[in-house]
Design brief:
The complex is a heterodimer of chains A (115) and B (110). Chain A is mostly beta strands. Chain A has strands at 4-5, 10-14, 19-25, 32-38, 45-51, 56-59, 62-67, 72-77, 86-95, 101-105, 109-114. In chain A, 35% of the residues are buried. Chain B contains no helices and 11 strands. Chain B has strands at residues 4-6, 10-13, 19-25, 31-38, 42-51, 54-57, 64-70, 73-78, 87-94, 99-101, 105-109. The chains are: A mainly beta (115), B mainly beta (110).
Chain lengths: 115, 110
């Protein structure tokens, strides 16, 4: 049961254009969402996050949008740069009955930014 | 800067061997995690720990065990390695909601 889904395994975008990565979730208990970036042979690094009480969070070229009614979030990268080429993982979390953070990751989208 | 280190970048083991993967973090984080990453499956949680000597099963704990004797160190143990445990293993630590990952260990079981 994949609670967090990234339906596009890959995405190619021209340098300077917008990259839009999408993520859907099914569990209504998720209250915090994160995006991580992963380069080959490295561990994922935290990129940006959003709480369920917000619908938008911006950090430089990166903006995350949350649509709770649709259980959908997206990451926008503007303008895209070749250094953004990486695998992007969406993650969702909530506090379980034990008070611990339960985190679920998506399957990842490989972004290629073409110079 | 938070640093999470993993004992090996690449490891080759034989079926049936006992395998230890070590992870150390230097930021005094309470929480530590072990994931495996497989193509098309993303990151799947194997085990996590919220305190010394405390462990909780993740989504795919079968065939694995863990040990956390000190706050900074979290070990993943494959009691009897099998070929379906060939994977990239990632350790992470966290204080709040975002996690800091190590570089990963590429384990091949032959």
């Amino acid at each position: 049961d994949q609670q967090v889904k990234q339906n596009s395994p890959s995405l190619s975008v021209q340098e300077g254009r917008i990259s839009i990565l999408n993520c859907d979730y099914t569990n209504s208990m998720f209250d915090y969402f994160l995006w991580y970036k992963k380069y080959p042979a490295e561990g994922p690094t935290f990129l940006i996050s959003i709480s369920s009480i917000k619908d938008k969070n911006e950090d430089g070229r990166f903006t995350v949008f949350l649509n709770k009614s649709a259980k959908h979030l997206s990451l926008h990268i503007v303008p895209s740069q070749p250094g953004d080429s990486a695998v992007y993982f969406c993650a969702a979390s909530y506090s379980n009955s034990g008070g611990y953070q339960k985190v679920t990751f998506g399957t990842g989208t490989k972004l290629q930014v073409i110079p | 800067d938070v640093k999470v280190t993993q004992s090996s970048r690449y490891l080759v083991k034989r079926t049936g061997e006992k395998v230890f993967l070590e992870c150390v973090q230097d930021m005094d984080h309470e929480n530590m995690f072990w994931y495996r990453q497989d193509p098309g499956l993303g990151l799947r949680l194997i085990y996590f720990s919220y305190d010394v000597k405390m462990k909780e099963k993740g989504d795919i704990p079968e065939g694995y065990s863990v040990s956390r004797e000190k706050k900074e160190r979290f070990s993943l143990i494959l009691e009897s390695a099998s070929t379906n445990q060939t994977s990239m293993y990632l350790c992470a630590s966290s204080l709040a909601r975002s996690q800091y990952f190590g570089p990963g260990t590429r384990l091949t079981v032959t």
